[in-house]
Amino acid sequence: MLSEELARQVAVVGRECDSCSLCCKLLKVVELAKPPNVWCKHCRPGNGGCSIHAERPDICRDYFCGWRLSKTVGDEWYPARCRMVLSFAVINGLKTVSVTVDPSYPLTWREPPYHGQLKSMAAAGLRVHKPEDIHIVHVRVAEQVWLVLPEREVEITTVNYLIKLMAPGLWDVETFASEGAAQARVAALAGSGQPFAVALE
Prior knowledge:
This protein is an alpha+beta fold and 201 residues long. The protein has helices at residues 4-10, 23-26, 58-61, 66-69, 79-82, 114-126, 179-192, and strands at residues 43-44, 49-50, 84-91, 94-101, 135-141, 144-148, 153-155, 160-167, 170-176, 196-199.
């Protein structure tokens, strides 16, 4: 996560939170004992935002959504408009574009223009030659999580998965019901020398 000072330096000019406080609903904040998908008790959505803004924890202070940080996403990704929050993070060692969807609008991510753009993000993130260069796309709706691939989505809510190189710049995913099965496959791929990236839950 970027520090607040650095995030402000790289934030897209002209993109401000304004009346949007959707991150204060959708995201989990351990420091405030706030679970995901409920409004933070300190938030005044549409009426002044955070009531403890000056004393908010660092996790909130340093958080900037992807719409504010990336020129590559259009204004249609303004969270108050699309009912989704884009985040950039490293999850299980993999660079990840994480899309958290308002459970009141669970199918939004499958609608145009968002679904096509997520597929394009996924394709760009896998059009690489080294595992350390991979960027993946996750979509979370309530308790369900999908890994978005260029041609399909794979639900990964309760599975472990790895991404393996099929051909130069072409990656595919394998899923496993247990961490033991995933570890065995990791060992086999490591022994074969085939490049891969793994996410074990």
